[in-house]
């Protein structure tokens, strides 16, 4: 599937280099002959729900003599560990442990890795301008039956800049093909850094420059979908992860960078009065995002692509979906780090559950040290930078509960809480128009619950003991009777 002999010649953040690695440890599957209209998305969805979901590389797509689509790029501990350059042999728990502390270090050293402009990139093999620009020359899927169109931007990397400082931002936003392939809407999330940059450009210059990569190493997907601190370029942050500057092509029309390892890329402009009807789209909450609404449409001035290019597809939907595992792992480590930085004592673990899209349901395990400790941790978690967006539930549990085990968390809620006393409601937090509970046209606030599912502080010693065998004894029994149990 991947020509290993050419991988050494690939630029940094090449998707083909990533695929060669994934193929080498047996987690890449070839899918030939699927149709771009729903079938490709349905195959990907079935894969996400499999016991061992694989990365799928679709080729020979119906109606397209060339062009490929990748799904499931970060859906396992091995693939995500490789993406984050943390090793290829992790489990869920070891990956979170390996990631802890890294985001702050990467942020601190990002400025040491400014992007490296180059005029030599495989991306430049094919350039289109004017009426030769057509995004539908590529096998762009219609992922879900209720989608309002074909979405080329699910795993994309959208680059904007701060007009005052020039600092680049890279975000992952959904992009629907418009105008028969000549344009695409950019659904930049309000409040995110990319949307702030766009609005600042509008206020100062009446238009905003933008570049987009549609196929690249999933590291850019991971960074574009998480909260890198404002003022830090995601491309420089990626350089810190890699330990080397990211090579980029500078767009001749906008001056903005495009990763040299990109498969398909475009540059152009956004204007406040240039909008198109967009949506609905099956989103990461597991629901369609609502009625069609106007979004900014990118005026594409140039389009580049490699021969037989690969589109990075990351279709969301009801969890588990394409990037729910990635977000769960990254958010779990980032929230843990922020709690430690806030001075929280007795912290045992954090898990941003995949069933909540890595945002909506967060469990935190603590060893209670003083009266009010559990509530303090719950309130802090609900407002951390890494957790505040679209969070709906924070559950604090004792240190005997594994926060990643949803059965254990629900058991703690069921047996260690009094709903009248142990659930607190925080109102009008940072929400999103993607929230299925948000009435049409209402401001995007979200209310959230902090659930204290720890044993009551004053009853810690007298609370009924847990009815389970000693773990050491269970290990002895398994050694003797394992043949019966396995």
Automatic annotation (TrEMBL):
Protein name: Decarboxylase UbiD
GO biological process, one term: cinnamic acid catabolic process
Transmembrane segments: none
Matching InterPro entries: UbiD, UbiD-like_C, UbiD-like_N, UbiD_Rift_dom
NCBIfam families xref list: UbiD family decarboxylase
UniProt cross-references to PANTHER family, sorted A to Z: 3-OCTAPRENYL-4-HYDROXYBENZOATE CARBOXY-LYASE-RELATED, FERULIC ACID DECARBOXYLASE 1
Species of origin: Mangrovihabitans endophyticus
Domain 3-octaprenyl-4-hydroxybenzoate carboxy-lyase-like C-terminal intervals: 325-453
